[in-house]
Amino acid sequence: GQKKKVMEMAIKNAQNNYENHRMMYQNKVVKKQDNIYRLAELLNINPPIIIEAFDNSNLYGDYPVSAMVSFKNGIKSPKDYRKYHVKTVVGANDYETMKEVVYRRYFRLLMEEQVMPNLIIMDGGEIQVNAALETLASLNLEIPVMGLKKDDTHTTNVIVYNGKEIHLSRNDDLYLFLANIQQTVHDFAISFFRNSKAKGMFMSRLDGISGLGPKKKEKLLKSYLTIDRIKNLSIEEFKSCGINEALAIKILEKLNGDKND
Can you tell me the distance from the alpha carbon of 184 to that of 176, in angstroms, rounded to the nearest whole number? Predict the structure, then answer.
C-alpha cells in the first residue's frame, strides 16, 4: 500500500541522483581529457597522459628544496608526488637546482625501469626549461618540456615551448587546467620548504652536546638567537635558561673550541 509507494519513490529518487552524479563525473573526466588532447595539439606532441611538474623553493639560497607533482589523465596522483632536498647547489641557483632534481628523478626511473611521463612542466621560463632539456639529453631521454612563465605581477601569462611563447586566454579551460597544475606544485613545494625551514632553525652547533636536550636547546636559541651570543654568556645567564653550571661549561667549551667560529 502506502509504504510500498514511499519505497518506490525513494528508489526512483536514488536512481535519479545516481544518474546525475554519474553524468557530472563523466563530464568532469571528459573535460580533463579534452584539455590533454588540446594541449597535445597545441604542442604537436602525443597526448600527455602522464604529466610531471617541478618547482623550487628557498629562502635567499637557504633551505633549498624542490618538489614534483604528477597528473594522470588530467587528475592529480598524490602517491606519485616527490620531494627533494637540494644536495649539490649552493645558493639560489634555479638553473643548477633544476638540473640536479630532474637528473635525480629520471635517472632513478631509468634504473628502476619505470614509466616515463609524456610531458614535463617547469614552473618558470626558458631558464628552467633549458635546464631540464640539457639534463634529459645527458640521460639520452626525449621527453617534451614546457614552462609556465609568470609576468611582473606573478601571474602566469604564457607557455614556453620549443623556443616559442604561446599565449592563452585566462578564461580558457586549458589555461585553467595548466594553472591548476602550476598552483598544485607550487603549494607542494612551499609546504615542504616551510617544514624544512622549521627543522633547520633548530639545527646548530649545539647539536650533539651531551645533556643538552631539545627543549633546553630551543630555549637557548629563542632567548639569545645566535651562536655568537650564546658562546659569550655567563654561567648565571645559562642558569636562567634552566642549564646548570656543569652543562654550561660543557657548552662553552664546545662553542669556543669550534674551529668554525
Answer: 12
